[in-house]
Amino acid sequence: MIKEKTDALTIRDLTLDYGTTRAVNDVNLALKPQELGCLLGPSGCGKSTLLRAIAGFHPLTSGEIWLEGKLLTNPSESVLAELRGVGMMFQDIALFPHLTVEQNIGFGLSDWPKSKAKARIGELLDLISLHNLGTRYPHELSGGQQQRVALARSMAPRPKVLLLDEPFSGLDTELRGRLTSEVRTILKGDGICSLLVTHDRREAFDFADRIAVMDDGHICQFDTSFNLYHEPVSPFVAHFVGPGEMVDAKVNDLRSVKTPFGVLKSDIDLGFEIGSDVRIFLRPDDLIQDDDSEHTATLVGKHFRGAHYLYEVRLDNGVLLGCFGLSQHDHKIGERFGVSLDIQHLVVFPK
Amino acid sequence: MAVTDKVRLVSFRILRPNGLLIATFCAALCVALPLFVVLSFLVTTSSDVWQHLVDTLLLRYISNTLLLSFYVAIGVAFIGVPTAWIIAFYRFPGRNTLSWLLLLPMAYPAYILAYTYTGVLEYAGPVLTWMRAVDMPEWVMSPFLHIRSLAGAALMLSLVLYPYVYLLARAAFLQQSANLMEAGYTLGQNRFSVFRRIVIPMARPAIAAGVLLAIMETVADFGTVQFFGVQTFTTGIMRTYYGFGDTPGAAQLSSLLLGFVAVLIVLERNSRTRIRYYSDQMRRLDKAAQNLNGFRAFGAQLMCFLPILFGFLVPTMLLTSWTLFDAQMQSLWQLAWNSFALAGGSALFIVGVALVIGYANRLFPSHSLSYVTTFIGLGYALPGIVVAIGVLIPFGAFDVWISAQLAPWSVTPQLWISGTLVAVIFAYLVRFLAVANGNIVSGLSRIRPSIDQSGRLLGLSQTGVLTNIHIPLMRGSVLTAILVCFVDILKELPATLILRPFDFNTLAVRAYELAGQERLIDASPASLCIVLVGLIPVILLNRSIGKL
Fold first, then answer.
1. Start-to-end Cα distance in chain B
2. CA torsion angle for A235, A240, A241, A247 (degrees, to 10)?
3. Mean per-residue pLDDT for B380-404?
4. Which end of chain B is more exposed for a tag (fewer CB within 10 A), N or C?
5. Global pTM value
6. Cβ separation A157–B193 shorter than 8 A
7. Side-chain half-sphere of B261: how many Cα atoms within 13 Å?
8. Which chain A residues are within 8 Å of B195, Cβ to Cβ?
9. Is B188 in contact with A111 (Cβ distance < 8 A)?
10. Is residue B465 part of a domain?
11. CB of A159 less than 8 A from some CB of B
């Protein structure tokens, strides 16, 4: 039971059903105090259901949820949603349209002393930089302003954990990127332990300290964005956190594989039988344009990305791969050029 | 390259006046005519009768109208809000059926309900006869004896008008995002607090709008208050016009009533604006509804059943049984033919005008046009009796003028238009154009401009777009508009009563006359006829809501 004391939020062996379908299957997850976590997964993977179970809006089939060393819920007992100390920011913002910005933020402070509540509202208005809009109504605010008010409202009663259910999904891409970082800064400043749900990997990267990639009710991997990207534990995770292609290879020895690009070395033991067929996962940034290389590839597609090109190249053995190229070079489709691999960590999956 | 005759350059700025726009402004003038005629009497000098009115009856008209409105407001809120609440937030056996049965009382004009209850509650009627037989104490019998009172009128009106509140409140409850309630829970509020601080305040504008609509109908009501002998503005106008023969006095009373209506309109529009801000299209409450079992389910069923019982089932059973076994009434067929032909013809005409306005707005949108259309929408708020007075005065003046012009040719002076169906249909146009317009506008708004444009790009001409796209898509809306107008006209009493040609009777007028002669049982076939036809739009309404 020591775990529950050091962790803010602990989810143990959690299974949830949505109607007759299993939404979440035997999930374990722990967030440290002040940590910003994220559940990342495609729609229908169970991430929102998991969030709603933490908030107290979804019954448990089995397992337990603990918050700061106290049991919140198990299949037979459940602390009421309003007594949990769990804050939530909703996908549709869910600001109360009949209340002003100040009244919205102060909604959860009804049993605080008047002066303290007022001070807290002022503090939050400053934090979200809307101190001059406190008397406005939600419909008088822009989408981004509404988001920030919703954030302030959910933070106001100092919840022990703050849940964010795809709160940025209704916004345009640019605003979304800006707000995500902004919200991260605000939450870090307040030291609130938070859990974001999203299907957008960039949002997850911008927001979270650690990301749990979910698929079909399971958590595949719970790790930092760097590790998810460079050391994915499964092909699903590898594909979900960024573009890349699988390439067939053969295990050469304990720490190397044979590929169409020659022998690639790994920095750790691969754990595969020598001579077995495997697949390696290559990201566009693993393959670089290199005129001195002995391996050549044909350019079959290119996408201008501003700072660089994302090329699609076909290797001489027919394998299609992504490849970064400098945007100063402008190769034509059909051109051949040399490519070489620049891999820091080899990602190998069984075939 | 020469422009061939098949390629025509199209000017996108249409400045010259065209038929559609002219027709729209004419329709607006029609609606404006009675309004301005009535209002013009505010500034004319007072007649002797008017002075007498001010001294004696005016205060009573005002206080009775206000008191009646107040009682009805309480009545409709008391019936409409709890039923909407139960239907929106709970699940129990029979809920779906009850949710639409609750609309049925809308089929009743209040005056028919009044005739029916008076018929069954009169001294020699079955209820009181039975009460005397079992020696019921005086205080139990007294309210039944005094049904013909202001409180009785308020009860009748509440029983048929509560569906306005029920519909709007239910929609407001259902449209609230479940997330808003959950947000309340995550902010530490319990169930009661969430209802008190979120659900009810957010539904308040919708409830207010429903109550205000009911009050508008109440101040416009003539048949019920007339029959119950309650002296309100509408009965006052009728009395001043017929009793004293004082048309200017009636017009002045009408303009005062209009002031009251204007206040109601402003309040109602205000509520509507807030409803727009409050409505949220995200996850509906449906999923959050609670299941009720056993005793609690029975309580919910009973609460929803009582208004249906007294607002529809009891009166309909009474009317049916009287019609089948007791009523003595000749020539129902003639009456029905008069009513249906008049209502049908008027409805077709009115919807035709509404189509013209709708297409004028679509093809030549402009600010002034949208103001004109909004103005036309006000016609529905004009009490029928006010419209009648406002039509009668200019039409009468026109008849006098024509007769004077024709006098040299020794043509007998007569009522050229004021005593004809032209006047009646004109009044219907003023009063019900808004209803038709609403249906047409909502139908047209569903055909997005991009649909027209893709039709054009795929090679259809403007006429082709009309025949291949609009007519099939608009058919439903047009039929609904015709039907709703038809039924509204069938139920309409005061304007028809005042403006109809001599000896031309409709179902509503005949029911009114028979009731006036205390022949309540004999009035039942006509009443039943109106109610049964009135059911059709209620069922349609329910279906269109079901689609949401």
1. 54
2. 40
3. 88
4. N
5. 0.78
6. no
7. 26
8. none
9. yes
10. yes
11. yes
* Cross-chain residue pair A94–B190, CB shorter than 8 Å: no
User: Distance, in angstroms, between A47 CA and closest chain B CA?
Assistant: 17
Are the beta carbons of B185 and A80 separated by less than 8 Å? Answer: yes
Indicate the number of domains in chain B. 1
Residue among A54, A70, A55 at smallest CA distance from A11: A54
- CB contact (8 A) between residue A110 and residue B177: no
Q: How far is A320 from chain B (nearest CA, A)?
A: 40
The residue-averaged pLDDT of B431-435 equals 89
- Could you tell me the two tokens for B244? 């004293």
- Residue B412 in any domain: the answer is yes
What is the reported pLDDT for B280?
A: 53
Beta-carbon contacts below 8 Å between A and B = 82
Nearest CA in chain A to B283: A92
Identify the domain containing residue B397 by its residue range: 17-41+327-547
Task: Tell me the per-residue pLDDT of B69-113, one tens digit each, with 9 for 90 and over.
Answer: 999 999 999 999 999 999 988 899 999 899 989 999 999 999 999
Q: What is the DSSP string of B66-96?
A: HHHHHHHHHHHHHHHHHHHHHHHHEE-TTHH
Reported in sequence order, the residue ranges of B223-357 that DSSP labels E, i.e. its strands, are 290-291
Structure tokens at A43: 């729609």
Q: What is the pLDDT of residue B528?
A: 92
ipTM score for this prediction: 0.75
Among all chains, which residue has been given the structure tokens 């993977």? A45
The answer to whether B278 faces chain A, any CB pair under 8 Å, is yes
Is B215 inside a domain boundary? no
Residue B62 forms contact with A (CB below 8 Å): no
Query: Does B199 contact A at CB distance below 8 Å?
Result: no
Is residue B196 less than 8 Å (CB to CB) from chain A? no
With beta carbons less than 8 A apart as the criterion, state whether B124 and B523 touch: no
Could A56 and B183 be called an inter-chain contact, meaning their C-beta atoms sit closer than 8 Å?
A: no
Residue A297 identity: A
Contact B183/A92, CB-based, under 8 Å?
no
Residue A2 confidence (pLDDT): 43
Q: Is A96 on the interface with B (CB under 8 A)?
A: yes
CATH number, residue B403: 1.10.3720.10
Task: Tell whether B125 is covered by a domain.
Answer: no
Bridge partners of A249?
A278
Q: Which portions of chain A are predicted below pLDDT 70? A: 1-5, 327-328
Question: CA–CA separation, B12 vs B1, rounded Å?
Answer: 23
One-letter amino acid for residue A26 of the chain: D
Is the CB of B177 less than 8 angstroms away from the CB of A154? no
